Amino acid sequence: MHYRLPLSLFAIAMLAVTSMNSYAAGNLFFGPKAYSVNLDNPNYDDAINGGLLIGAKFIASSTHSFALEAEISQTVVKGDVGSEEWELDTFGIFAAFRAGGNLYFKGKLGMVDREIRSTSGSLNDDNEMAIGLGFGFQDGMMRMLEIEYTQIDDNRYSPEIRMLSIGYYF
Known about the structure:
Elements: H1 4-25, E1 28-39, E2 47-60, E3 64-77, E4 79-81, E5 84-100, E6 103-118, E7 123-138, E8 144-152, E9 161-169
């Protein structure tokens, strides 16, 4: 993934700058995610990914928050394509907005570096814009459960990627 290092360094730098204050204020969160992954191609069956999200809230009130999130995922169960299998690895950086109280709406926008591989060795490696919408529930202890739909844009060389995920953050 040719943009993974610059994206990783950016994410680490941004989270490091805010993490001390965010952690002290209870605004740093992380946790696991599970994804159903669909490529915009009828020949590809869905795959299942597992991942990790880390985030830091910059602005937070009882009704809304703005956060920077870094997310990484890898295929756990490969999808089928003809007589072969395919898999997807992703690394993304997102600006996320949550609005509501304990039950909330989430919107996010960011860049995702993704790599699609098949058992024949073909490779599609690119970084694209991504947008996500979801909703979640949080309790007073900063635990969050989210269901989210993320779409990674396509270009003329790669398919559109759609991910439905569930995440639990603390």
